[in-house]
Design goal:
Number of strands: 6
Helix content: 40-55%
Oligomer: single chain
Strand content: 15-25%
Strand order of the largest sheet: 3-4-5-6
Largest sheet: 4 strands, mixed
Order of helices and strands: EEHHHHHEEEHHEHH
Structural class: alpha+beta
Distance between the termini: 47 Å
Number of domains: 2
Amino acid sequence: MSSGIRTLRAGRGFQTVLDDGVPVASVAQTLADLGRCRPLRDVLAGFDAMMRAGRVTKEDIAAAAPERSRGRPRLYRTIEVTDPNAESPGESLSRAVMIEHHLPMPTLQEPVRDQHGGLLGRVDFIWPEHGVIGEFDGRVKYGRELTGRPVDEVLLTERRRELDIESATGMRVVRWLWDDAWREQGLLEILAGAGIRPLR
C-alpha cells in the first residue's frame, strides 16, 4: 500500500474484463461493489446510465454481488429502482431524493402531445394522478440547445413549450435546478408546493 492507494485482494468470483491487456473490474462488478456500500443518491446515476447504454442488466449486477456479502439489501434496493429512462445525472439524483423521502414515483420521459396529436416533447417526470409535471433544468440541457443561439431565445422557447404543455395537459409544470436536488430541501419544497408529498 502506498500513499493514497489501498490494495485489496479480490474475492472469489470477482468479475474482470481486459482493458488494453490490463484486467479491470467489469461494469457489473463495479456497480455491485458501489451499490453495496454507497447511498442511493451517490450511485443511482451510474446504474441508470449503464443500463441506458446497454452495458449491463439488473441481473448482471445482482450476479456480481457475492452471496451473504455485506450491503446486499442496499444493492438490491438500488437495482430495483434503477430506470434506464433517466437521461441525465440530475434526473437520477432527483429521483433518488424522491425515493429516499418516500414521495410518489413519477413516470419518466413521457411524451406529451397537443390536441392535434403533434408531439410537444417528452417531460422528465410526470405524476398524472396529481396533475403535475416535473422538469429538471440542468446546464448541460441548455448547453446542448445553445449552439449558435442567444440565451434569452432558448429560455423563451422553453417557456413557450412549458405553456403549450400546460395548455395541452391541464397539468402544472414545476422546475428545479441542480442545487435544489443536491441540497434536497429545495426540491422537496418545490414538489410539496405542487402537492407531491411523502406517502408516509
